[in-house]
Amino acid sequence: MFDYHIHSDISFDAHSPAREIVACAAQKGLKEICFTEHMDIDPAGGREEIGLDFARYDAVYQNLMAEGCPIAVKQGVELGAFGDRAEEFAAIARAHDYDFVICSQHFVGTRDPYYPEFYEGKTMHEAYQEYLEEICKTLRVFKEYDVVGHIGYPSKYYRGTEPCKFIYSEFAEIIDEILKQAIADGKGIEINTSSIPKTDDTVATSEMVSRYLELGGEILTVGSDAHWAADAGNYIPQTLKKLQALGAKYVCTFSKRQPIFHSLPDLV
Ligand SMILES: [Zn+2]
Ligand SMILES: [Zn+2]
């Protein structure tokens, strides 16, 4: 069992020291985890804390490696990349020796769908469509990543009265464009389990995963997006079973940006 999306207190919005997360993950029976600390740029300027302290991150990781860990621990990054600053994000990915890079759309224009303001004056459909179009814009120009993070991120935070789950058929054209672009570029998609308590599904949703597989995609990673040590590994066993039921044959880990394919029947 692997968890390929975890934030330690190096990320501006997470709370647990890396060492505590490793201990917790080992106790839960995880075999491998990957830290994916936030590296965001505020498109409106001002929120510098959402960036990453690279030197501190390297020091913490190197310390973990030197002291030894009971499970495999990789060093990754969650880039909040967006089209207008694609070259800066690509330079960051190239400048560091990370194992794994997630490309996560965290902004639509200058707004973050985490905050209620993003949804003001929009139907749920309009808000989700805008978000998906923004991912498309990013993926057309940004290529320095391994998997597309949490396709469907606004469904975690939508507070309106309509059902918050992404329904594939309502956004089929734009979702297909995202998935086809990722596949054409040799990239994977992330199955993020943090939405399960709210939507009873992952982001990307099961429907999106099925479509990715149908279109010929092969690279899937699974992550809890834990921001506390106790959340590492959340919902991952049931998600692996679901992926197998959807027809997925493999789940990937990464080492130095290269995917390693693990047969799903051996993991569930
Ligand atoms: Zn994210
Ligand atoms: Zn995250």
UniProtKB/TrEMBL annotation:
Its EC number is 3.1.3.15. It catalyses: L-histidinol phosphate + H2O = L-histidinol + phosphate. It comes from the Bacteria. Pathway: Amino-acid biosynthesis; L-histidine biosynthesis; L-histidine from 5-phospho-alpha-D-ribose 1-diphosphate: step 8/9. Keywords: Amino-acid biosynthesis, Histidine biosynthesis, Hydrolase. GO terms for biological process: L-histidine biosynthetic process. GO terms for cellular component: cytoplasm. Residues 3-194 form the PHP domain. GO terms for molecular function: histidinol-phosphatase activity. Belongs to the PHP hydrolase family. HisK subfamily. This is Histidinol-phosphatase.
